[in-house]
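Internal tracking record. Fields below are filled automatically when a chain is submitted to the structure queue. Please do not edit lines marked as system-generated. If the sequence contains nonstandard residues, flag them in the REMARKS field before resubmitting.
Queue: standard
Priority: normal
Entity type: single polypeptide chain
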Amino acid sequence: MPAKKKPKYSGPLASAGDKAMNLDSPKEYWAGVAENFHSADTAGFAPVLHPNAPPWFNRLIDKLQFRAFRRALAMASIPPGAQVLDVGCGTGRWVRRYEDFGFRATGVDATASMLRLARELRTTAPVVAGEAYHLPFPNSRFDLVSDITVVQHIPASLQPQALGEMVRVIRPGGFLILMELIRGEGPLLFPRKPRDWIQQAASCGGKLVGWFGHEYLLLDRLFVRVALTLAGRNGSSLRAGADSQKRVPKHSMMARRIYWGVRRVTVPISAWADPIADRVCPAHFATHGVFVFRK
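SYSTEM-GENERATED OUTPUT FOLLOWS
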């Protein structure tokens, strides 16, 4: 019998690029994202956040992530001038912020086109090519290593190796900050339960300092679930990006405008209410977990 072909990417992520890419070619997928969405916004958010979303959505998500990261950073004692590595740096948004914080920053990413965008967006810190599960740095090089929604895109079988590499390059007493999915599903998404992320990092030598939930967005999550359920098979067209508009039927484009028009209301309201949700909801009810470990 002929060997079965691996499925192509489908759903919201698949429409990010003009090419259909095999599940065994994640580098090609991310290269396509960088190529097709490099001009979607001036901050380089689209290729590393939600490629198919309107710019206002990515700006808001970035703002929420920045707020969560500052909270995580407050849990670690990182002095100015510390050596900081951002794994999966993408277009360099965190590397640039580390420079603003007064850290000596380095970025690493496996996708050459992402690194090119990082340099074009005036990232002056060194950004180098490398896989998260095979970092091109010596042992105990950095005071802090950050992983902002990166390992969640690595197959589960390679995630322990990636976390082990991050811990390896941290000096004794240094810190690891993870911001990763703890719920959800989709192509190139491999979330874990909070206890699993903690166990994986602990098995590599990371001692948990603390963790909290991030991105509850309760009202918006409810609306998205209802909208996608009603849309059924056409659900992916609601999230289709500008690059795919010519391939989406007119009625689907109208549905997409309505979908994002409603979310233009539900997302800001949900973001405003997130600090309240953080106080009253269990942390595991959030979309992401933010974990701080010490080596």
